[in-house]
Amino acid sequence: xxxxxxxxxxxxxxxxxxxxxxxxxxxxxxxxxxxxxxxxxxxxxxxxxxxxxxxxxxxxxxxxxxxxxxxxxxxxxxxxxxxxxxxxxxxxxxxxxxxxxxxxxxxxxxxxxxxxxxxxxxxxxxxxxxxxxxxxxxxxxxxxxxxxxxxxxxxxxxxxxxxxxxxxxxxxxxxxxxxxxxxxxxxxxxxxxxxxxxxxxxxxxxxxxxxxxxxxxxxxxxxxxxxxxxxxxxxxxxxxxxxxxxxxxxxxxxxxxxxxxxxxxxxxxxxxxxxxxxxxxxxxxxxxxxxxxxxxxxxxxxxxxxxxxxxxxxxxxxxxxxxxxxxxxxxxxxxxxxxxxxxxxxxxxxxxxxxxxxxxxxxxxxxxxxxxxxxxxxxxxxxxxxxxxxxxxxxxxxxxxxxxxxxxxxxxxxxxxxxxxxxxxxxxxxxxxxxxxxxxxxxxxxxxxxxxxxxxxxxxxxxxxxxxxxxxxxxxxxxxxx
Length: 482
Ligand SMILES: [Zn+2]
Prior knowledge:
Helices cover 35% and strands 21% of the residues. The protein has 482 residues and is α+β, with helices and mostly antiparallel strands. The protein has 2 domains: 43-217 and 425-479, Zn peptidases (Aminopeptidase, 3-Layer(aba) Sandwich); 240-391, Alpha-Beta Plaits. Strand 4 (141-142) and strand 5 (145-147) form a beta hairpin. Bound molecules: zinc ion.
């Protein structure tokens, strides 16, 4: 008895020793870089940002609602507001409304940088219009914030890039490295005609970029529990997207004499079964990197858990699974989004259908997931088909943090935001940059703003200070191309 007790005690001590050693010896991934002095924000820059919001460059789910006029007017606005950019850079128009700018560098041996942003915004949900505290397309300034649809997603990046470029051109700045700007017009509906076509164009010209930056994570003081310093979240991979249609066909009839099981019953049982079987939790490469970058910055016991994620997996997973956004970081998620059956209250329908939307972790391909779903439901009466397949990208590869590109980005973020920590993370949402993996492996998804509000929802706004930092970030990034 005593012997067994001693063996167990010894094993526990070894485990404690091992985890403690891993915690203490975890290398600090935070580079020590001093912030630079943030320049004042010119009034004109603020006005330009406000004006940009007034163009209702909306992408609708329903293509019939799309209006080209705001896009044409927005182009004219960009041309008149940023004259030097339009004089000195080449601009190509792709699919009529997407733009590829080229700022030619002096040194051909350096691979270009590509800075991306999208012009389009999501619509205002009519039913929520009266809940907005300002006119959605006004660009109003309120309590230090610039307000309106598109401020955070994604005109802040587009306007900041152009403000920085215009300023540098005024100084006759000439980059050694070529810099491209890619401004798509249909990101919110998948980027098929904009970013995707521009990516193919660059590929056809054999252009390989050293760094691509698109919207994504941001600087946050609120979103990383256990850390009090601001954290810059840099997306190094993006989850995939898959929608499946489930349909059941079964003879209907009069509702006065129903069969024991109807098409609706079979479909609902399948949905309940699916929901009761979430996919296994896994730490993607980006998430492991997140633990490595932030673990050493945390206090006990969080630092120990992050230094030993394999040992503390269940604790970490339980914590993350508490919220929808946390859960999305650690597993392929799914949720029914459309359900359809029936035409009249006294008719048992013959057909019942449901659409389920899946967000795929890197490593979970749509084929793997479809197989798993079939196994879970295990009912041949439920027919499973792809829904909207052409808008279903797989998860992206993961950008390495060991590259010069990541180090440059890391440095410029730290120069732009005083006292900020940086970390890679897995992007849950999609961006236009998913189309660019044929152009570069170094794709980073980061918007240099702090804690934006109302992303895709009511009262969208971003602080003026964020905008100031954002311009400063892009200016320093462009200057680094010297
Ligand atoms: Zn966006």
